[in-house]
Amino acid sequence: MPITQLREIAAASRLENVRYAIRDLACVADEVIKLGHKVLPLNVGDPLNFDFQTPPHIIEAAYKAMRDGKNGYAPSPGVPEALEAIRGDAARKGITTLRDVFVTSGVSETVDLCLSALVNPGEDVLTPSPDYPLYSAVLCKLGIRLNAYDLNEDDAWQPELADIERKLTPRTRGIVLINPNNPTGSLCTRQMLEQVAELARRHNLIVFSDEIYDKLILPDANGDATPHIAFASVAPDVPCVTFGGMSKNYLVPGWRIGWGIVSGDAAAVKTYTEGVHRLLRARLCANHPEQYAIKPALEGPQDHLVEVQRKLRSRRDLTQRWCESTLRVSCVAPRGAFYAYPKIDIPESDEVFVKELIRQKHVMVVHGSGFGQKPGTQHFRIVFLPDEQTLARAYAGIAEFIHERYGNS
Ligand SMILES: Cc1ncc(COP(=O)(O)O)c(C=O)c1O
Q1: Distance 265 CA to ligand 1 centre (A)
Q2: Pocket lined around ligand 1, Cβ cut-off 6 Å
Q3: Cα–Cα distance between 196 and 201 in angstroms, integer?
Q4: What number does the ligand 1 atom closest to the CA of 108 have?
Q5: pLDDT in tens, 316-359
Q6: What is the average per-residue pLDDT within 271-277?
């Protein structure tokens, strides 16, 4: 007799708050595509969807590794030559108190491992608002209460120290910095990093510094090209894991290669690092052949970065000019990565704005409420990776939509 499953298999209730707005919008886009329209995708941060190509020598290195039989499991922390190359890159970033390095399947896995290795039930980690949604998703998965601190739009999206102080509890274990930031495109100033370091020292916190976009830095409108500053270089004594990876800087998001660089006082980070390694062993290893591309990427020609930065600067400038000349829109000029996070002054939620924009003008951006924002404010995130012509078309569509929906004042 056939056995019938009668009761529904429920998903864990911890997952109720797990959202990934960037991909959730795809359902609305699918509706529009089914009606025969083409959607302009300004929503996903994948340069390979646009006119950016992976440097050939990196592809060659991964291909060679496969041909050379590097297709079994790798050592759990990563292959030695990749680890050595990451140590070299950390040194060039000014990280002097390096204690450990490990390779992961994308920074996504670094985030998961590093948060999982830290928090106990009842404890929390400070995350920025707005933030890259994976941080909240992983914390929800772990059953950890979210504790978000504000980034201050009036201060070029720097972390708001007073809010961090307010949100700190005796059970706060760490703080996440995303620098350069997704979704705002902002860069932390040296002074800000020093202040966060001071706070971490006083409250015995570990800092997770997500620097996945550290080589995608753009000059500001005055040509000021102040370089990116690694948190760990400013605070060599503070326990820190710097997150880095190949997805963005080296244009291989599909390879899933990231890493963590542990720095700080050796005794302070020892037990935590051992915890991370337990998790690294439990999941066996990161993608193996692709790890052989890390050394050629970090130590080989960097010519592609010049071209990437040239394109991004031109597209950022176009985006900024549009924001400045469009009614109801204003934006802090991005200095890194390929995101802009304009504020929009409208009488409805930004989620409605974004969904109707897809339906009516077939342009896809992501609503600010998908990343977090101060109550009463509305934003949307633009990925300015498409070429200038595509961006101009998309911006004309958004401006027309704003005009038609909200009028001229
Ligand atoms: C700030 C930030 N951290 C981490 C990631 C995940 O990167 P990966 O492709 O290495 O998993 C992203 C991807 O967009 C990101 O924007």
Answers
A1: 27
A2: 45, 106-108, 132, 178, 182, 210, 212, 245, 247, 253, 258
A3: 9
A4: 11
A5: 999 999 999 999 999 999 999 999 999 999 999 999 999 999 99
A6: 98
Of ligand 1's listed atoms, the one at least distance from the Cα of 258 is 10
In angstroms, the CA 155 to CA 159 distance is: 9
Going by pLDDT thresholds of 50, 70 and 90, the confidence category of residue 243 is very high
Please tell me the predicted confidence (pLDDT) of residue 22: 67
> What's the CA gap between 281 and 397, in Å, rounded?
50
In this prediction the pTM is 0.96
Residue 31: which H helix or E strand, with range?
Answer: helix 26-34
| Residue from 247, 294, 381 to probe ligand 1 pocket by mutation (most atoms less than 8 Å from CB) | 247
Largest Cα span, the chain:
77
Q: What is the pLDDT of residues 359-388, one digit of tens each?
A: 999 999 999 999 989 999 999 999 999 999
**Atom 7 in ligand 1: which residue has the minimum CA distance?**
107
C-alpha to C-alpha distances, 336 to 119, 158, 178, 179, 371, nearest whole angstrom? 30, 13, 11, 8, 18
DSSP 146: P
Q: Tokens for 383? A: 């990925």
Compare 20 and 235 and report the one with higher pLDDT.
Answer: 235
> Could you tell me the distance, in angstroms and rounded to a whole number, from the CA of residue 256 to the centre of ligand 1?
10
**The residue count for the chain:** 409
Q: Whose CA is nearest to atom 13 of ligand 1?
A: 45
Query: Do 348 and 229 meet the contact criterion of CB atoms below 8 Å apart?
Result: no
**Ligand 1 atom closest to Cα of 257?**
10
Tell me the C-alpha distance between 358 and 139, whole Å.
30
Q: Are 367 and 354 in contact (CB under 8 A)?
A: yes
The atom number, within ligand 1, closest to the CA of 337 reads: 16
pLDDT band at 201 (very low <50, low <70, confident <90, very high): very high
Contacts 24+ apart (CB under 8 A), 321-327: 322/391, 322/395, 322/399, 326/395, 326/398, 326/399, 326/402, 327/399, 327/402, 327/403, 327/408
